[in-house]
């Protein structure tokens, strides 16, 4: 979005648009080069099929002006006769956006709105028309009215005062109302994002900031959807914390998805059972869920196991979890102390309250491990009459290693 606030829409009618396409499509073999001479890029461009709107006697000046613009956008370090530190991925992203805008009059108008809005909190209609004059867009005022109506219905506060539009919504948020339909950053429709938010809030209360982090959508977009949902009375204020207001869906009796309590529970259990079967080869039954009282808890478990199924460990995450595990092990070691009484010939295991502060998922794993250890020791004790102590120790180590190996790295 920052690039669209700096570049004017008319760039689509200039050589700069061709240069963007050239850098995207015709420079694959240059991506590992540290520095690139501008004259070499110009010579390569001359041989490119991307040439359009370029005049040979102004090509050098046009290209130098283009690299200066890239420098302002922090996409390159623009030096005298060369460019350095090229942000290839960002250049490609901008090129993709420009190509989408090129084929849509609505996107061109949104771009002009965004460009003007980034300079002033009110938009002069004649200034907008002037920005778009070379595109010869028919019925421009009708398209503009359609855009404004759509965004007002979504929560944008804007007033028409004669020949200008005055924004009542805070500038950063207003820019997102206008620009999201251009960039399609999340690759999800507003309806899909709304559905994801409702599903999340059906599990418990969350703030806008927390929702943004969980579903990976810009916080301004979340704020926009939340405003719409509040206006539709689908949300209830839960509390106010250090991350802002927290909300949850109205209640189970007024389900935003039209489900009954029993059908919601049945669907959640079915999804969890299928996930455990597919991912772990374990057959669960309805009896395994009898201790779970609320539907919200079931929905939270459903989200956890579903996300776990989709999770793929990267090298960074592998290193992160390996070292995080060591830190948690340190907490466990520091929290357990064995006190010996030499006179009474006894010992006492002392557990610090810090153990209860460990992450819940770690506590679950620790608890399961201890329970298995107890069961394993019982089995070994029962076998003591049949096997020597060294054999028992060997078997215990072997079984323990089996479990550790099954957990992975």
What does this structure look like?
Helices cover 57% and strands 11% of the residues. It is mostly helical. Helix 6 (105-117) crosses helix 8 (140-154). The protein is extended. The model has no long low-confidence stretch (mean pLDDT 79).
Entry summary:
By secondary structure, the protein is mainly alpha-helical. The chain contains 17 helices and eleven strands. Strands 1-3-2 form a three-stranded antiparallel β-sheet. Strands 4-6-5 form a three-stranded antiparallel β-sheet.
Keywords:
single chain; 409 residues; mainly alpha; Arc Repressor Mutant, subunit A; 6 domains; three-stranded antiparallel β-sheet; 17 helices; 11 strands
